[in-house]
Amino acid sequence: MATTTTPAARSGTRFGRPAAPPRRRRAGTPRRKPNVPAALAGFVWLAVIILPVYYVVITSLRGQAGFFSGNPLAPTHDLTLGNYTEVLDKGFGTYFLNSVTVTTASVALTVALSLMAAYAVVRGRGRLVRSAFSLFLLGLAIPVHATIIPLYYMITRVHLYDSLLALILPSIGFAVPVTVLILANFIRDIPRELFESMRLDGGNDARILWHLVVPLARPAIVTVSIYDALHVWNGFLFPLILTQSPGRRVLPMALWTFQGEFTVNVPAVLAAVVLSTLPMLAAYLVGRRHLIRGLTAGFSR
User: Fold this and answer.
1) CA angle 223-224-227, nearest 5°?
2) What dihedral do alpha carbons 160, 236, 67, 47 form, nearest 10°?
3) How far apart are the C-alpha atoms of 250 and 167, rounded to whole Å?
């Protein structure tokens, strides 16, 4: 069968534009030498990161008998999902749902409140606004452990002890300062002419915040959302102090509980670790592009 070719294809062009010539090294330009120490350091760092993850995953798929016999790093021939089944039968779903509820509510409220506060700090004027921003920055200097006793007292006085709301409110309070700081720095980079243009078009603060700030600050919003979600998801101190009943436990407390129940069943404990890691890994994969843009914003200036 005869094939037809377009004039652009015959002339070696694409979409009618001339093909870019191959890059050549300029005469006299020194050839870059491979950075062998940096490459070796990179491989060592990769091994330090990959080996524990590999050990956790491969051990969670072993039987208890296979864990005590054989090389712990060698692939096993008796792969089993029995450890995951055993963990799920021990109420893992309840703990997982509690963690999802606490993390989702804390992150959503933190980002919403912090975004409005950051917009007011950047676009507001007056001494009161500057004082409010200083109060937010002061929150970064207060350690969590120093507030446990007054926090426990307040939670019990308002009858929120042993409830999910008792975990959500402190998580929001300690996440707001750093979230406001990051979002305020990002909003300051938005050109002032855009705010003035929307103001001339009749836009109020709510419209400017929703139609201008939110789309342009999306990388920063994703970054602080993942950052706050990691802190709330892995938080152990608040669940330990402010909850008691098994029905209010979150995943970090559940892992502690499984460690007590499965004292000699290490593969079952590591299966619970794998299951508790999957949601945060999925969140990172989904928001990875925005996360990198948010973390590297301003580095080129």
Assistant:
1) 90
2) 150
3) 10
Pick the range with the lowest mean pLDDT from 67-71, 213-217, 226-230: 67-71
114 alpha carbon, distance to own chain's centre? 17
Q: Please classify residue 90 by burial: count the beta carbons closer than 10 Å to its beta carbon, then call 0-12 exposed, 13-18 middle and 19+ buried.
A: middle
149-205 pLDDT, tens digit per residue, is: 999 999 999 999 989 999 999 999 999 999 998 898 888 888 888 888 888 888 888
The answer to whether the CB of 114 falls within 8 A of the CB of 183 is yes
Residue 64 corresponds to which amino acid?
Answer: Q
The residue behind tokens 């090294």 is 25
By the 8 A CB rule, do 67 and 59 touch? yes
Q: What is the pLDDT of residues 63-87, one digit of tens each?
A: 877 777 777 777 777 788 888 888 8
3-state class percentages of the chain: helix first, strand second, coil last, to nearest 5: 70, 0, 25
